[in-house]
Batch of 2 targets.
Target 1
Amino acid sequence: MKKTTLLKFRNAAFLLFGLFAVKQTAAQTDWVRVQTPDASATRNMLRGISGTSSTDIWTVGSFEEVFTVPPYYKQNDLIMHYNGSEWTTYPPMNLSFTLDDLWDVEAISPTNVWAVGIFNGASDPRAEILHFDGSQWTAQNPPAVTGGSGLFSLDSTSATDIWAVGQKTGSPTRPAYSRHYNGSSWEEITVPPVGLYRNELWWVDAISPSDVWAGGFFGQTTGDFHALVMRWNGSSWQNMPLPSNIVTPQSEVLSVKAISANDVWVLGYYLTGGGFKLHWDGTSWTEMPTPNGGGGAFAALSPNNVYSVGSEIWHWDGILWTQDDPLAEIQYASLVNTVTFPNGDIWACGITTDADSHFHTLVYKT
């Protein structure tokens, strides 16, 4: 089911964007919190959410295990499923002694679900690909990459057209990483480097087999971050240059929502503070008003019915942004991923932090 993926948890600052031409108003849509279990007493993170309906929801992330002997703690895969009345937490895959971390999930059907992430291999971090066949999860990890690799986002148009993107760290250019599933195997698809030093893709959204969008950043030198959007045209990945005032040395794309070939939303932030939203109309980019707190991910029901979630929930009606839900009842809420369904239902996942700085799972729905 179509969804929008945020990228990385950095710190809460990137969720608190500046307020420009927006309107604060009472909530328009009834958002309710769905109670979720925690796998750990200290640290639980939900990064990816998908499903086939509101009674078949998958969400993934990680949780912290604490030991009395080395390594003393481990970040492990967190996989949860909601059947309409209760959550089931699946056993972690335990692919690594120290780190197993899932970043995104894509449900094609109740018996065909994929998840991607990263785990610590024998010598370097490795990209993780998991598959659920209706009864159990199994690993279908790609080959190890010298220097390391990770996959951070996942999307599909069908069971035979699935994309995953991330990063490889072993090459001098540290190229972006993409893999495509054709129904039988995962094939690596080369992403041409835009930056001389580093290229990373945090997010992917597919419109059709010949129109796929991805976002992240590139760097020309150490500590250099420039916002990046790439587009797959059916045969190759191409750079979609962003406005020069956006592509500063400290900018990064966090999320992209491709509604159609001439209706694409991009969300990003500046490492120095503040954020940006861009819209592609099929010809050019336009910088859009940026609501405060709506800096996690997009959910789009139509071109004039778009939601932006983060530390608050905002709604775009085609003219302006209005605050839909301030999430005032949640301490330090961060919604980072969404999934939408044909009946108009929207689900979002993320984290909330308590007074002891413990992270807890968080899910909201309409």
Note: The chain has a mean pLDDT of 90.
Target 2
Amino acid sequence: MPGGSSRGTSASLCRRIDQDKCHAQRNGKFRDLYDLCLYKGDTLREHGDHEGALAEFEEAFQICEVLPDPTPLDKAEVHRRRGECLMQLERFDEARDNLKSYLSLAEKAGSHVEQQRALATLGQLYFVQHQTEPQPSDRLISKARNAFLKSLRIVEDNLAETLGEPERAVMKGRLFFNMGLLYDAVENAKAIESFKFALVQFVKHRESREDLCRCLSVLTNIHLRQGNAENALSLAGRLLDIGRETKQPDIKCEAHLLRGAALLQVGDRDEARIAFKHAMRQKTTKREDHEHAVRCVKLSQALRTWDLDLKDAPDVVERVRLHEKAGDALVHCLLQRPALKEYEKAVEEALSRPDTIPSKKLADLYVSLAETCSDVREYESALKYYRLELAVRVDEPDEIALTKLRIAKMLQKTSGKESAEVEDAIREAVTLSRRAGKPSLELECLEELVLVRGKAEDEIQDRIEELRAAGADDTDSSRSSQQSGTLSEIDLNDISDASDSDPEFSDSVRRPRKKLEEKINTKGETKLHKACIDGSLKKVKELLRMGHSVHVRDYSGWQPLHEAANYGNLEIVKCLVEAGAN
């Protein structure tokens, strides 16, 4: 296992460092001893041993007192490392004290580079702390933003003469990236703008590939969440280019997964299936990515089967079941946008013959729609579906109570905590959960009421403590998550390789059959793409006569029609449209 090998390497390295430390101590080489303590601490931290790292940093701090050539930055370095370790351990007060000491020493030393770094790390601390809070903290968000902006000002105003443009570009890129994460966490529309600024900075400095890949990945996921599939395809294509260029399977696996998700959004299930299979075949070191790729390949096979079943479905009940099943499976694979379409189709089928579908089933479909809309941050739509659910839900006080609570949470997103509707909905949820005999749900509702009000009345606090004492907080009151047992039943050996024509796998034992639509270059273009770019109407017509698909996409998501339009080849555009391109 990679993890076991990594731990063994770490232990071996630490033993060698300990030997070097003993030698340095015997010979009174305290500067070497100080550096070795930092080196061992960094090594332990990289492998997740933050407590062990803290012990090394404490030793380094003590050595600072006997250094023959001490500087203010010696202790500053220790404070920074301590702060970063303590942040990982969620000991935020101690982390903040160390990072503020780091900043103070950096200012004393007159080092703008270290001041910039200290402020950037403080910003990260406030952001990480915000993420662990049960409720969003405007105070922490404001502190994080201010720290990032101060750090950015230092980069722009004080480092032009001491650092080269590439180094400053990376610094600015990381700050814009962190601000993007911050804005996205609080659902601020400035997130995409910040990530785009970061992207520009990382592109300027080609050596910062890791930063560039992270930025492309986050931006792609945001576009997927927002339903901007074409943008997501383009960004995933750029990520795949980097993966191919650097021959890094981790990057290629992630890029193929993102491409598959985007292709599903545009309705190209065959190409999505191929992308997921490419992801699965990468020798990635990230187990979770490989497992996700396997799930997505199984999902693609299941979707193909269900599409065939839909054509033969004898009645509305079966069609509703199949669409709901597809929606649940897509949610299970974190593909919410395509799932929404399946749930919408299920509701459409159910409403076409309401006499055949029980009201409970329709209510459950509305819940699936509402929860999935909430996942993609479409809160107004979620509210609409929760209210439609209430209109058809009968004789289920526990389900109605839970929906009232969810409505209160959606209203906070759309109208704010001050809305009178919020408290009314929570109070109704409390009453209904008590009537249904659901103490865990009642506790959740009461705790939400306290958060909304900002304080707890004696009567409410007494009831909360009573429910906790009875163990109400040990049970889960939420609806069971949407799962798909169907995917676990699919055997990967049953999935055909016939559609795999990517040259990336040409070194496998069994070479794939050459196809008309085979990619001819590293951009994923086909002969039809190339003919459209070159403006060769004759070649386009010849390829279409031979049966070339008009819907095939390159790695950036472009179809031949896009290329013909981009290059102003209008006759080719007409030809492709007549051949079925859209």
Note: The chain has 26 helices and no strands.
